[in-house]
Amino acid sequence: MLEEKLKQLGDNSAIETKTPISGGDINQAYYVKTGKQEYFIKANQSAASDFFQIEVNGLEKIRSTQTIAVPEVYYFDNSAGNEEMMLIMEWIEGEETAAAEQHLGEQLASMHLVGGSTAYGLDQLTYVGKLTQSNEWYTNWVDYYREHRLQPQLDLAVQYNRMNQNRRLKLEALIRDLDFYLPSQPRVSLLHGDLWGGNWIIGGAGQPYLIDPSILYGDHLFELAFTELFGGFSKKFYSQYQEAMPLADYYQDVKPIYQLFYLLVHLNMFGEVYGGSVDRILKRYI
Q1: SS3 string of the chain?
Q2: 77, 123, 179, 194: which one is catalytic?
Q3: pLDDT tens, position by position, for the chain (286 residues)?
């Protein structure tokens, strides 16, 4: 099947190497080298038919800002039925340089400064990990964050039996009172939406690339909060980012509420190992 897809791209040469790549929870990933070119391949037999289409849309939206690099997409399946779907992209490889994370901070800030929308949210669903992420356009950031970020994860946690009564009551209270904690009209920024340390890579000459987006338009502090949740970013990254786009003085107050969304996602995907972190944030506010 892979050979046929590569031929559609004009690569009729033989596959010389196909090596599995570890690190992903959702897709099978491979490094593929033909006589003509190197490729990065994602494959998935159980994902929704639009799974790769949504990823490609996010990459192209980021590319359109002309601020930070993303891999070139050569091919992707859409509505593949029972067949294994594939996403074929350029292979990105480079050596880490001292300036790589500085460039990442500067270029991410540039992307956040571009904007591109006057509303919060998005006009299509996305995926956060394996979970479907619904979106709509909102004129109020708090309403979007309440109705399309925290509430759906609460509902899912109840469905998965991952909300004890105390946790549920506190999360419901925080969701209800969210207007007291978050800004309703922050600057509208295009966000990668899932920016942890594994979702950026280094290309030639130390150039940073963003991968695996779950884009939305929202408060840039939402993005920054997640980068701090699981580590993977250096002081160079943050100092360069803040030089281009200084952080609001209330950042430390809202950071845990923004991190809460991602912890709820992990709670729903991986279980109670993330429950304590959710509870600590809820205790801080409620």
Answers
A1: CHHHHHHHCCCCCCEEEEEEECCCCCCEEEEEEECCCEEEEEEECCCCCCHHHHHHHHHHHHHHCCCCECCCEEEECCCCCCCCEEEEEECCCCCCCCCHHHHHHHHHHHHHHHCCCCCEECCCCEEECCEEECCCEECCHHHHHHHHHHHHHHHHHHHCCCCCHHHHHHHHHHHHCHHHCCCCCCCCEEECCCCCHHHEEECHHHCEEECCCCCEEECHHHHHHHHHHCCCCCHHHHHHHHHHCCCCCCHHHHHHHHHHHHHHHHHHHHCHHHHHHHHHHHHHHC
A2: 194
A3: 888 899 889 989 999 999 999 866 688 899 999 999 999 999 988 888 899 999 999 999 999 999 999 999 999 988 656 678 899 999 999 888 879 999 999 999 999 999 789 999 999 999 998 899 999 999 999 999 999 999 999 999 999 999 999 999 999 999 999 999 999 999 999 999 999 999 999 999 899 999 999 999 999 999 999 999 998 799 999 999 999 999 999 999 999 999 999 999 999 999 999 999 999 999 999 9
Looking at the whole model, is its pTM more than 0.90? yes
Tokens of 180: 């007291």
Q: Tell me, yes or no, if 219 is annotated catalytic.
A: no
